[in-house]
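PROTEIN ENTRY
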Amino acid sequence: MEYISYEDSGFCLRRFGERGDASNDIKYALDVTVTSDGHVVVTDGGDCSVKAFDSEGRGVLAVREGFCLPWGLDATAKSEVILTDSEAGALYRLAADFQRGELKKCQMIRSRLVSPRAVAVCRSSGAVVVVEHLKARGASKGSTRVTIFSAEMDLIGQMDSFGLNLVFPSRIYATAVAFDREGRVIVTDVCSQAVICLGKPEEFPSFNPLISHGLSYPVGLTYTANNSLVVLDSGDHSVKVYSSA
């Protein structure tokens, strides 16, 4: 598994982290984020680690101790990293001096979550949103739960697929999550093949479909610096970019 970066026009700028046996090689990437100082941080399910690279693709840090299955991650405005451990049911805060390759802190900040995967941090407020994957009961299908915490990790709001279905016109199965520039929670929904705005944390949950056509199986999303929305669609193996206009 390797990391590939592209410019706005789609031209490949750089690729690194090819699969191999070296300590900084990426075995099975699960998520990626970029810190404000330009470092690329990846969760690697292959050896249950978190790996950081500089802008040239050089491995600068690998954190392996203490994780069961690190999954989702997002960078804060201070270049710290919030990450989920799906198997441990926990949320961690990782602080490091990436330029020196030094780990400063790896602290569990929330536990007793149910298979947490996707996570996003609001750059303005510091709020954190997590998508938990709940186990199926009997013949029913599994469901997801969207959980929002304040910057101090106090619970703000929480609702699973069943609860959201009571409020919204269709069942929602969230696969990815992000905050937009205004601090609203945005999720991809594979049931309706859509991208949906759930509102700001204090408004949660509201319902506003942003993209309802043209997606097959959306599994990832992020916002660019110019507020364009980038969606990863695994249904047709494509990356789709939407303007905010």
